Amino acid sequence: MTGGRLERGLLGAAGVVGFLAIAELVGRAGLVPDVMPYMSEVLAAAALLPMEEQFRADVLATLAACLSGLAIAIAVAVPAGLLLGTVPFLERSTRPLVEFLRPIPSVSLIPLAVFVFPDSHDAKTALVVYTCSWPLLINTMYGLSDVDPLAKDTLRSFGFGPLAVVLRVSLPSAAPFIATGVRIAVSVTLIVAVSVELLAPGGGGMGAFQSLAGSANRADRVFAVVVWAGLIGLAANVLFTAAERRVFRWHQARTGDAA
Amino acid sequence: MNRQPLWPRYWPRYWLLPVAVLAWELAARSAQAAYFPPPSRIVVRLHEMWFSGPIWRAFLTDEAIADLLPSLARLFTGWGVACAAGVLAGVALGRSYLLSALVEPLVHFGRSVPPATLVPVFLLLFKIGTPMELAAIVYGVIWPVLINSMDGARHVDRQYIETGAVYRLSAWHRLTRIILPAASPKIFAGLRLSVSLALIMMVISELVGSSEGIGHRMLEAQSQFDIPALWAVIVLLGLLGIALNTAFLGVERLLLSWHRGARG
């Protein structure tokens, strides 16, 4: 298997290099509009960006809003999901409300959030919380419906109260589903955070950096931010997938979808 | 399937919706909250803005046609283009070892780029207008479709392919009769994700750069401090989201019914 992996890695690297070379050649040959920078210019700009104080501050501003928003969403949505998932009456009653609120595209709340939160950093965090809460809530509830009833009954027959059952059986066995919710949430946080920054650049962030570079007609810098945003997104993805696999190895072993 | 009459089966489940609306109405009226108008005012604004037109136009006003038509046209065009391209490219990648090995890192990078960061790029490339919004929708939508199609096409049961080889099916028939049907549950999983993404990208691209459409209407309401109109747009987008999801699930159930039948 390692030989195949090496081969795939080499082919992948060749693909990346080939893509960059083709993009550069297409640019040099004048096949794309003039506003498009050459690939080499984009990469050079991207390599220089981390040296800039402002860019570092903006990346941190975006990540801070994403992480604090995610943390608040976990603190709110997971207990809410536990409550709704363990009390069938509440679950039945709130489901229509959830089904109605969830399809509202979170970015459509941006113009309103800008009014409600005069500080655009708060608006960003609030929208990240709103967006992340849905996948977390839904996945927590879904995970709870998958809990082994035998385990719950066992604990109950040993005289544990309902809270102990939730904390000792339901939460651990729903945890892998919650983790999936977190992974889904993470991929949406960046979209929402950057969208707020584009529309309300007052609070800084990568989107604000981009709109500044765009209005200065520095296409190379706009593209360079895209490169970094992609790398950050990729890193977050790899990190969360690896952490999930590591922490929940027992779950994969149990359900048998290890590959 | 238990065939109970609809009414007693549904009404106890929906009791919270009217209660929530009523609570909001009372709270908003007593608190006089500027940014949270009572639902009754939102509905009135929604009605006078879009749905108070003549009967022969299904009650749609001129404004409704001017706002909704361009947005919906872009939504469906962008979604359609992205789905077609995503399925095509995904199936090709899934069936070719060499191709998928070559582009896999690029695909993972591409789908990790938050599509919102590309809105300024498309704004520079195309200026404000429909091409820029289409590009944003296509980019936002294509990745889940592509990745799921790739996954589905890669893991087609070997026996199906070999049976096709025994019967000497042509390449075209192998694609349309074996690979696409076998990959379709996965493909539809990607398409389902893409519906809500398309709506998100439509809104964000119109908020950043457009001179017409639902997003533009929001910006106008924002600049005129017309909070009920802002809420009316949010409600409309929510209803649109529900309608699109329901329609999609219906189509999926129809097209994939053979699959559930075959798998039991």
TrEMBL record, chain A:
Its main location: membrane. Keywords: Cell membrane, Membrane, Transmembrane, Transmembrane helix, Transport. It comes from the Bacteria. It holds the Pfam family BPD_transp_1. PROSITE patterns: ABC_TM1. It is found in: Cell membrane. GO terms for biological process: transmembrane transport. Coiled coil: none annotated. SUPFAM superfamilies: MetI-like. InterPro entries: MetI-like, MetI-like_sf. This is ABC transporter permease. It comes from Nonomuraea turkmeniaca.
TrEMBL record, chain B:
PROSITE patterns: ABC_TM1. GO terms for cellular component: plasma membrane. The keyword Membrane applies. It is a multi-pass membrane protein. The chain crosses the membrane at residues 76-98, 118-146, 187-209, 229-251. SUPFAM superfamilies: MetI-like. GO terms for biological process: transmembrane transport. Pfam families: BPD_transp_1. It is found in: Cell membrane. Belongs to the binding-protein-dependent transport system permease family. PANTHER family: ABC TRANSPORTER PERMEASE PROTEIN MJ0413-RELATED, ALKANE SULFONATE ABC TRANSPORTER-RELATED, MEMBRANE SUBUNIT. This is ABC transporter permease. The lineage of its organism: Bacteria, Bacillati, Actinomycetota, Actinomycetes, Streptosporangiales.
